[in-house]
Structure formats: structure tokens, C-alpha cells
Amino acid sequence: MAILDFPPIEQADEHGLLAIGGDLEPSSLKLAYSKGIFPWPINEQYPLAWFSPDPRGVLDFNDLKPSKSLLKIIRQKRFKVCFNHNFEAVIQEAASLVNRKDEEGTWITNEIIKSYTELFYLGHAYSVECYDESDSLVGGLYGFVDGHIVSGESMFYRVSNASKVALIAILTYLHKQGHYWLDTQMVTNVVASLGGKSIPRAAFLERLKGARNKRTSLFNGQVLNFETDLASYWSSR
After folding, report:
1. Cα 34 from chain centre
2. 129, 217, 232, 233: least buried by Cβ within 10 Å?
3. Could you report the per-residue pLDDT of 156-205, keeping only the tens digit for each?
4. Is 58 exposed, middle or buried (0-12, 13-18, 19+ CB in 10 A)?
5. DSSP state of 118
6. Cα–Cα distance, 45 to 36 (Å, whole number)
7. Number of other CB atoms surrounding residue 185 within 10 Å
8. DSSP letter for each residue of 123-150
9. DSSP string, 42-56
10. pTM for the whole thing?
11. In terms of C-beta density within 10 A (0-12 exposed, 13-18 middle, 19 or more buried), how is residue 106 classed?
């Protein structure tokens, strides 16, 4: 049964935990993200947990700080960069603990995979893929999208810098569409290395309000090859 509402986010505890239970129906997820809430399952054996942390992680396009070596990779088009070519492979790879040696488990449960894959086919999730010269998937990320509400959920890499290129690609694409920031929920080492920051939850909610007021969609389920646009944009930077 779809979730009808959530508690006020001010009731979240010091870890950002707001609610326990419920489901991952598309309407439940859309409601959650519209309020600045996201699911973060502990594991398959525990009830579903919903979070709204304070502070909140974001990555602004104007704060992007790719290194010289990363810019060289982009300009030389070392990776073929695509959107929405293979969502299911990306989320499966993100769940497989690739390059997460300090983690004992993954929050991307089978229920998460099923629900976000359904969201993808409804036009409310996206993926970014990086392929090598042999067309093997070597990095990427996936996230939620509803109009101008865009969140990065998880990423992976099998070749160094592939996930960073994917993250820069989504920010560059959003910028070209007139949208300048990505909800990263938390600031991981990779996000921080590119200029990610934590902002007060109240400030995040103001951003979210502005995003909700924009009715156009940033993706419309488009399947895109983006490496040429990405290299062209950053060649002048």
C-alpha cells in the first residue's frame, strides 16, 4: 500500500532517521523525494528506513573542481559516456560492492533494485554509464528524477575515474538544461573531491521548493550518447 504522508522532517533524529516501515511504490518514492526524504535500507532483514539528514549533501555545478588529469580523460574521450542505456546493469553493479572495500554490506537491497528499476521505466530514474574502448561497462551512477528534482543515489567503478566522469557528466548535462545542482544526500569522498558540500537542511528544502515549482522534465526518458558534448564543454575550461 502506497505511503500517504510522512512525519514532519523536523522529527528526524540526530542521524537523520525519520520513519520506519512502509513500501517502495513509485508514488511513495515520489512523495518522499518531493519532501526531501529518501529510503536507506539497513539490510534485507530490517524494516525499511527513511532519512532526511541535517546537514544535506549537494554538488553545485559552479563548485565542480575536476583535476587536470580528470579533465584530460574527459577531453580525450577515454570513456564512452551514455545516459539511460543500461539502467539495470548500473544498479546491479552499484549493489555489488565494487570498490567498497571498507563496507561490509550494501544498502541496495533486492527491493531497492526492483523498485528503482520500475521507476526507471516510468521515467523517474536515470543512469549514467561509462564504457571502455571494448564497450565494457566500467563505471556509472544512477539516481532519481522527477521534473527538476534530481538525486544521485549510488555509483560504482571498475576502472579508475569512471565514476567521477559519470558524476561530472550528469552535472554538465543538468547545467546545459538550466539546472545547477545535484542532491547527493551525503558527501562521500568522491563527491567531496569534486567540490561537494554539506548545507543546512533548511537551505536544501529551499532549493527543493524551487525545483518543485519547475514543471518541465530534465530527462523525459531520453537515451543519450554524451561523451562528445562532455568533451566539447570541458575543452574550453
Report:
1. 15
2. 232
3. 999 999 999 999 999 999 999 999 999 999 999 999 999 999 999 999 99
4. buried
5. H
6. 25
7. 23
8. TSEEEEEEE-TT--EEEEEEEEEETTEE
9. --TTS--EEE--SSE
10. 0.94
11. middle
Report the 10 Å Cβ neighbour count for 212. 15
Count of other CB atoms within 10 angstroms of residue 103: 9
Amino acid at residue number 44: E
Alpha-carbon dihedral angle through residues 177, 181, 182, 185, given to the nearest 10 degrees? -160
For 49-97, how does the pLDDT look when each residue is reduced to its tens digit (9 = 90+)?
A: 999 999 999 999 999 999 999 999 999 999 999 999 999 999 999 999 6
Check pLDDT > 70 for residue 21: yes
For the four alpha carbons of 190, 118, 173 and 223, in that order, the dihedral sign comes to: positive
Alpha helix stretches (DSSP H) within 186-236: 189-193, 201-212, 227-235
One-letter amino acid identity for 184?
A: T
- Centroid of chain to Cα 29: 14
Q: List Cβ neighbours of 105 (8 Å cut-off, separation of 6 or more).
A: 43, 97
